Protein backbone atom coordinates (compact mmCIF):
# COMPACT_ATOMS: atom_id res chain seq x y z
CA UNK A 1 0.00 0.00 0.00
CA UNK A 2 1.32 3.44 -0.87
CA UNK A 3 1.54 5.48 2.30
CA UNK A 4 1.00 9.24 2.37
CA UNK A 5 2.53 10.95 5.40
CA UNK A 6 1.33 14.36 6.54
CA UNK A 7 3.94 15.81 8.89
CA UNK A 8 2.53 18.60 11.03
CA UNK A 9 5.49 20.81 11.85
CA UNK A 10 7.62 19.57 8.96
CA UNK A 11 10.25 22.30 9.36
CA UNK A 12 11.01 21.55 13.03
CA UNK A 13 13.73 19.31 14.37
CA UNK A 14 11.48 16.23 14.63
CA UNK A 15 9.46 16.88 11.49
CA UNK A 16 12.44 17.58 9.24
CA UNK A 17 14.33 14.50 10.39
CA UNK A 18 11.20 12.39 9.95
CA UNK A 19 10.72 13.74 6.42
CA UNK A 20 14.31 12.87 5.51
CA UNK A 21 13.88 9.38 6.92
CA UNK A 22 10.62 8.61 5.12
CA UNK A 23 11.99 9.98 1.84
CA UNK A 24 14.77 7.41 2.11
CA UNK A 25 12.19 4.60 2.28
CA UNK A 26 10.12 3.13 -0.51
CA UNK A 27 6.37 3.56 -0.60
CA UNK A 28 6.01 6.95 1.11
CA UNK A 29 4.67 10.22 -0.25
CA UNK A 30 5.49 13.13 2.05
CA UNK A 31 3.51 16.31 2.70
CA UNK A 32 4.29 18.90 5.32
CA UNK A 33 1.95 21.26 7.16
CA UNK A 34 3.66 24.34 8.55
CA UNK A 35 3.83 28.10 8.45
CA UNK A 36 6.93 28.10 6.22
CA UNK A 37 8.08 26.13 3.21
CA UNK A 38 10.00 22.93 3.87
CA UNK A 39 13.53 23.19 2.44
CA UNK A 40 13.69 19.43 1.90
CA UNK A 41 13.29 18.37 -1.77
CA UNK A 42 10.45 15.92 -2.17
CA UNK A 43 8.24 17.38 0.58
CA UNK A 44 5.06 19.05 -0.64
CA UNK A 45 4.28 21.87 1.77
CA UNK A 46 0.78 22.98 2.77
CA UNK A 47 1.29 26.38 4.39
CA UNK A 48 -1.06 27.63 7.08
CA UNK A 49 -1.44 29.03 10.58
CA UNK A 50 -1.92 25.89 12.65
CA UNK A 51 -3.81 27.77 15.36
CA UNK A 52 -6.37 29.09 12.85
CA UNK A 53 -8.92 26.36 12.12
CA UNK A 54 -10.05 27.97 8.87
CA UNK A 55 -6.47 28.32 7.66
CA UNK A 56 -5.85 24.63 8.33
CA UNK A 57 -9.06 23.59 6.57
CA UNK A 58 -8.11 25.57 3.46
CA UNK A 59 -4.57 24.20 3.41
CA UNK A 60 -5.79 20.59 3.74
CA UNK A 61 -8.81 20.91 1.44
CA UNK A 62 -7.51 18.27 -0.99
CA UNK A 63 -5.21 16.29 1.31
CA UNK A 64 -5.85 12.59 1.91
CA UNK A 65 -3.02 11.31 4.06
CA UNK A 66 -2.94 7.78 5.36
CA UNK A 67 -0.63 8.65 8.26
CA UNK A 68 -0.49 11.89 10.25
CA UNK A 69 2.58 12.76 12.34
CA UNK A 70 1.99 15.66 14.73
CA UNK A 71 5.34 17.14 15.76
CA UNK A 72 4.42 20.84 16.17
CA UNK A 73 4.00 22.95 19.28
CA UNK A 74 3.99 26.64 20.10
CA UNK A 75 5.35 27.98 23.38
CA UNK A 76 3.04 30.41 25.20
CA UNK A 77 3.42 32.60 28.28
CA UNK A 78 1.41 30.35 30.61
CA UNK A 79 0.58 26.67 30.70
CA UNK A 80 -3.12 27.50 30.45
CA UNK A 81 -2.39 29.26 27.17
CA UNK A 82 -0.12 26.38 26.11
CA UNK A 83 -3.05 24.02 26.62
CA UNK A 84 -5.39 26.24 24.64
CA UNK A 85 -3.07 26.84 21.69
CA UNK A 86 -1.39 23.45 21.40
CA UNK A 87 -4.62 21.57 21.92
CA UNK A 88 -6.12 23.64 19.11
CA UNK A 89 -3.26 22.70 16.78
CA UNK A 90 -4.08 19.01 17.12
CA UNK A 91 -7.84 19.53 17.00
CA UNK A 92 -7.70 21.78 13.93
CA UNK A 93 -5.67 19.27 11.94
CA UNK A 94 -7.74 16.23 12.86
CA UNK A 95 -11.04 18.05 12.34
CA UNK A 96 -9.91 19.15 8.88
CA UNK A 97 -9.06 15.53 7.99
CA UNK A 98 -12.31 14.02 9.26
CA UNK A 99 -13.64 11.48 6.76
CA UNK A 100 -10.46 11.44 4.65
CA UNK A 101 -9.41 7.87 5.41
CA UNK A 102 -6.62 8.51 7.91
CA UNK A 103 -5.26 5.16 9.15
CA UNK A 104 -2.92 6.25 11.95
CA UNK A 105 -2.03 9.38 13.92
CA UNK A 106 1.30 9.63 15.73
CA UNK A 107 1.72 12.39 18.31
CA UNK A 108 5.15 13.48 19.56
CA UNK A 109 5.22 14.95 23.07
CA UNK A 110 8.12 14.48 25.49
CA UNK A 111 9.47 13.86 28.95
CA UNK A 112 7.56 16.82 30.38
CA UNK A 113 4.77 14.24 30.48
CA UNK A 114 6.56 12.99 33.65
CA UNK A 115 8.25 16.21 34.79
CA UNK A 116 5.47 18.75 34.36
CA UNK A 117 5.21 21.95 32.30
CA UNK A 118 7.68 24.84 32.30
CA UNK A 119 5.83 26.62 35.13
CA UNK A 120 6.34 23.70 37.54
CA UNK A 121 9.09 21.86 35.69
CA UNK A 122 10.78 19.04 37.63
CA UNK A 123 9.28 20.19 40.94
CA UNK A 124 8.27 16.63 41.73
CA UNK A 125 10.34 13.49 41.20
CA UNK A 126 8.52 10.55 39.66
CA UNK A 127 10.31 7.26 40.13
CA UNK A 128 13.03 6.62 37.55
CA UNK A 129 13.24 5.17 35.04
CA UNK A 130 10.08 6.79 33.72
CA UNK A 131 7.59 4.21 32.46
CA UNK A 132 4.67 4.81 30.15
CA UNK A 133 2.10 3.47 32.59
CA UNK A 134 2.89 6.11 35.24
CA UNK A 135 -0.11 8.29 36.01
CA UNK A 136 -0.40 11.84 34.77
CA UNK A 137 0.75 14.55 37.13
CA UNK A 138 -1.90 16.81 38.66
CA UNK A 139 -2.39 20.22 37.09
CA UNK A 140 -2.29 21.58 33.57
CA UNK A 141 0.00 20.09 30.94
CA UNK A 142 -0.49 20.72 27.24
CA UNK A 143 0.86 17.26 26.40
CA UNK A 144 -2.17 15.77 28.17
CA UNK A 145 -4.51 18.06 26.24
CA UNK A 146 -2.92 17.06 22.93
CA UNK A 147 -3.23 13.38 23.82
CA UNK A 148 -6.90 13.80 24.70
CA UNK A 149 -7.55 15.49 21.34
CA UNK A 150 -6.00 12.52 19.55
CA UNK A 151 -7.94 10.02 21.64
CA UNK A 152 -11.25 11.79 20.97
CA UNK A 153 -10.66 12.00 17.23
CA UNK A 154 -9.59 8.34 17.10
CA UNK A 155 -12.81 7.29 18.84
CA UNK A 156 -14.77 9.42 16.36
CA UNK A 157 -12.97 8.48 13.14
CA UNK A 158 -11.65 4.98 13.81
CA UNK A 159 -7.92 5.45 13.19
CA UNK A 160 -5.20 3.96 15.39
CA UNK A 161 -2.78 6.19 17.29
CA UNK A 162 0.59 6.23 19.00
CA UNK A 163 2.18 8.72 21.40
CA UNK A 164 5.95 9.21 21.37
CA UNK A 165 7.78 10.71 24.37
CA UNK A 166 11.39 11.56 23.53
CA UNK A 167 13.80 13.09 26.00
CA UNK A 168 16.20 15.92 25.05
CA UNK A 169 16.41 15.97 21.25
CA UNK A 170 19.80 15.73 19.57
CA UNK A 171 20.09 16.16 15.81
CA UNK A 172 20.43 18.52 12.91
CA UNK A 173 18.19 21.58 12.85
CA UNK A 174 18.52 25.34 12.58
CA UNK A 175 16.14 27.83 14.17
CA UNK A 176 14.60 25.30 16.53
CA UNK A 177 14.21 25.87 20.26
CA UNK A 178 14.68 22.24 21.20
CA UNK A 179 18.03 21.53 19.54
CA UNK A 180 20.68 21.09 22.24
CA UNK A 181 23.30 19.96 19.72
CA UNK A 182 23.25 23.30 17.92
CA UNK A 183 23.20 25.21 21.21
CA UNK A 184 26.20 23.38 22.66
CA UNK A 185 28.00 23.52 19.32
CA UNK A 186 27.64 27.30 19.28
CA UNK A 187 28.66 27.54 22.95
CA UNK A 188 31.80 25.44 22.39
CA UNK A 189 32.71 27.43 19.28
CA UNK A 190 32.44 30.73 21.16
CA UNK A 191 34.51 29.35 24.03
CA UNK A 192 37.19 28.23 21.57
CA UNK A 193 37.18 31.61 19.81
CA UNK A 194 37.35 33.70 22.96
CA UNK A 195 39.26 31.47 25.35
CA UNK A 196 36.34 31.31 27.74
CA UNK A 197 36.13 28.17 29.88
CA UNK A 198 33.89 25.45 28.49
CA UNK A 199 32.05 24.90 31.76
CA UNK A 200 29.04 22.66 32.22
CA UNK A 201 26.17 25.12 32.78
CA UNK A 202 23.77 22.91 34.66
CA UNK A 203 22.99 21.69 38.15
CA UNK A 204 25.09 19.38 40.34
CA UNK A 205 22.31 16.83 40.08
CA UNK A 206 22.49 16.77 36.27
CA UNK A 207 26.30 16.67 36.36
CA UNK A 208 26.24 13.57 38.58
CA UNK A 209 22.96 11.77 37.85
CA UNK A 210 22.14 9.19 35.21
CA UNK A 211 20.27 10.57 32.22
CA UNK A 212 19.59 9.92 28.54
CA UNK A 213 18.77 11.76 25.31
CA UNK A 214 16.98 11.07 22.03
CA UNK A 215 18.63 11.15 18.62
CA UNK A 216 16.14 12.62 16.15
CA UNK A 217 17.08 9.94 13.59
CA UNK A 218 16.12 7.20 16.03
CA UNK A 219 12.91 9.06 16.84
CA UNK A 220 12.09 9.17 13.11
CA UNK A 221 12.58 5.42 12.82
CA UNK A 222 10.42 4.88 15.91
CA UNK A 223 7.62 7.04 14.48
CA UNK A 224 7.56 5.03 11.27
CA UNK A 225 7.75 1.73 13.15
CA UNK A 226 4.84 2.49 15.49
CA UNK A 227 2.67 3.85 12.69
CA UNK A 228 3.08 0.71 10.57
CA UNK A 229 3.21 -2.04 13.23
CA UNK A 230 -0.12 -3.50 14.30
CA UNK A 231 1.06 -4.52 17.77
CA UNK A 232 2.20 -0.94 18.48
CA UNK A 233 -1.23 0.56 17.83
CA UNK A 234 -2.94 2.60 20.53
CA UNK A 235 0.04 2.77 22.87
CA UNK A 236 2.34 5.44 24.28
CA UNK A 237 6.11 4.99 24.08
CA UNK A 238 9.20 6.47 25.61
CA UNK A 239 11.82 7.00 22.89
CA UNK A 240 15.48 7.38 23.89
CA UNK A 241 18.86 6.25 22.56
CA UNK A 242 19.03 3.23 24.82
CA UNK A 243 22.24 4.44 26.49
CA UNK A 244 22.31 5.93 29.99
CA UNK A 245 25.17 8.34 30.74
CA UNK A 246 26.30 11.09 33.12
CA UNK A 247 27.13 14.59 31.92
CA UNK A 248 30.43 14.50 33.83
CA UNK A 249 31.38 11.64 31.48
CA UNK A 250 30.06 13.21 28.26
CA UNK A 251 31.21 16.82 28.75
CA UNK A 252 34.96 16.17 28.14
CA UNK A 253 34.07 14.19 25.01
CA UNK A 254 32.14 17.13 23.58
CA UNK A 255 35.06 19.43 24.42
CA UNK A 256 37.48 17.09 22.66
CA UNK A 257 35.48 17.29 19.43
CA UNK A 258 36.06 21.06 19.32
CA UNK A 259 39.69 20.83 20.36
CA UNK A 260 39.20 22.52 23.72
CA UNK A 261 39.51 21.50 27.36
CA UNK A 262 36.49 20.88 29.53
CA UNK A 263 36.59 23.22 32.51
CA UNK A 264 36.35 21.81 36.00
CA UNK A 265 32.76 21.77 37.17
CA UNK A 266 32.32 24.62 39.70
CA UNK A 267 29.73 22.76 41.77
CA UNK A 268 26.84 25.09 40.95
CA UNK A 269 24.79 26.11 37.90
CA UNK A 270 26.28 28.64 35.49
CA UNK A 271 23.39 29.08 33.02
CA UNK A 272 24.12 29.62 29.35
CA UNK A 273 21.76 32.57 29.16
CA UNK A 274 23.98 34.39 31.67
CA UNK A 275 27.27 33.20 30.20
CA UNK A 276 26.25 34.18 26.68
CA UNK A 277 24.37 37.43 27.38
CA UNK A 278 27.14 39.40 25.63
CA UNK A 279 27.87 36.89 22.88
CA UNK A 280 25.69 38.18 20.01
CA UNK A 281 28.34 40.59 18.62
CA UNK A 282 31.03 37.94 19.14
CA UNK A 283 28.97 35.52 17.10
CA UNK A 284 28.36 38.08 14.38
CA UNK A 285 32.12 38.54 14.09
CA UNK A 286 32.63 34.77 13.87
CA UNK A 287 30.04 34.52 11.10
CA UNK A 288 32.04 37.02 9.04
CA UNK A 289 35.46 35.64 9.96
CA UNK A 290 34.64 32.03 9.08
CA UNK A 291 32.18 32.63 6.25
CA UNK A 292 29.26 31.04 8.08
CA UNK A 293 25.64 31.26 7.04
CA UNK A 294 24.32 34.66 8.19
CA UNK A 295 22.29 33.42 11.14
CA UNK A 296 21.81 35.50 14.25
CA UNK A 297 22.92 33.88 17.50
CA UNK A 298 19.29 33.65 18.64
CA UNK A 299 18.45 31.57 15.58
CA UNK A 300 21.14 28.92 15.95
CA UNK A 301 21.26 28.63 19.75
CA UNK A 302 18.46 28.27 22.28
CA UNK A 303 20.20 28.86 25.58
CA UNK A 304 17.02 29.04 27.68
CA UNK A 305 15.83 25.61 26.55
CA UNK A 306 19.16 23.89 27.20
CA UNK A 307 19.35 25.64 30.57
CA UNK A 308 15.97 24.13 31.45
CA UNK A 309 17.18 20.64 30.55
CA UNK A 310 20.60 20.90 32.17
CA UNK A 311 19.41 22.80 35.23
CA UNK A 312 17.03 20.16 36.53
CA UNK A 313 17.59 19.12 40.11
CA UNK A 314 16.14 15.63 39.72
CA UNK A 315 17.33 12.46 38.03
CA UNK A 316 15.72 11.90 34.65
CA UNK A 317 15.92 8.81 32.44
CA UNK A 318 13.44 6.61 30.64
CA UNK A 319 12.56 2.96 30.30
CA UNK A 320 12.29 1.56 26.74
CA UNK A 321 10.93 -1.84 27.74
CA UNK A 322 7.57 -1.42 25.99
CA UNK A 323 9.21 -0.83 22.61
CA UNK A 324 11.76 -3.60 23.15
CA UNK A 325 9.05 -6.14 23.93
CA UNK A 326 7.39 -5.25 20.62
CA UNK A 327 10.71 -5.71 18.77
CA UNK A 328 11.84 -2.12 18.22
CA UNK A 329 15.48 -2.77 19.11
CA UNK A 330 17.29 0.28 17.68
CA UNK A 331 20.15 1.73 19.73
CA UNK A 332 22.09 4.95 19.24
CA UNK A 333 25.48 5.88 20.70
CA UNK A 334 24.99 9.23 22.43
CA UNK A 335 28.44 10.71 21.82
CA UNK A 336 27.94 9.99 18.13
CA UNK A 337 24.51 11.64 18.25
CA UNK A 338 26.27 14.89 19.16
CA UNK A 339 29.30 14.53 16.91
CA UNK A 340 27.19 13.57 13.87
CA UNK A 341 25.07 16.68 14.43
CA UNK A 342 28.21 18.80 14.88
CA UNK A 343 29.65 17.36 11.64
CA UNK A 344 26.57 18.35 9.69
CA UNK A 345 26.36 21.79 11.28
CA UNK A 346 29.95 22.37 10.25
CA UNK A 347 29.46 20.99 6.75
CA UNK A 348 26.55 23.40 6.22
CA UNK A 349 28.57 26.31 7.61
CA UNK A 350 26.29 26.81 10.60
CA UNK A 351 29.16 26.59 13.11
CA UNK A 352 32.90 26.96 12.40
Inertia-based shape: globular
Question: What fraction, in percent, of the residue positions are helical?
Answer: 40-55%
- The number of E-state strands comes to 9
**Gyration radius, to the nearest Å?**
20 Å
Q: State the end-to-end CA separation.
A: 44 Å
* Secondary-structure element pattern, one letter each: EHEEHEHEHHEEHHEHEHHHHHHH
So how many helices?
Answer: 15
Strand content: 5-15%
Low-confidence spans: pLDDT under 50, at least 5 residues? none
Largest sheet: 7 strands, parallel
Average pLDDT, all residues? 95
> What strand line-up does the widest sheet have?
3-2-1-4-5-6-9
Label the structural class.
Answer: alpha/beta
Could you please describe the fold and organization of this structure?
With 352 residues, this protein is an alpha/beta fold. The protein is 41% helix and 12% strand. It has a seven-stranded parallel β-sheet with strand order 3-2-1-4-5-6-9, sandwiched between helices. Strands 7-8 form a two-stranded parallel sheet. Helix 1 (13-23) links the parallel strand 1 (3-8) and strand 2 (28-34). Helix 1 crosses helix 8 (216-228), helix 2 packs parallel to helix 3 (79-96) and helix 3 (79-96) packs parallel to helix 5. It is globular and about 60 Å long. It starts with a strand and ends in a 5-residue tail after the last helix. The mean pLDDT is 95.
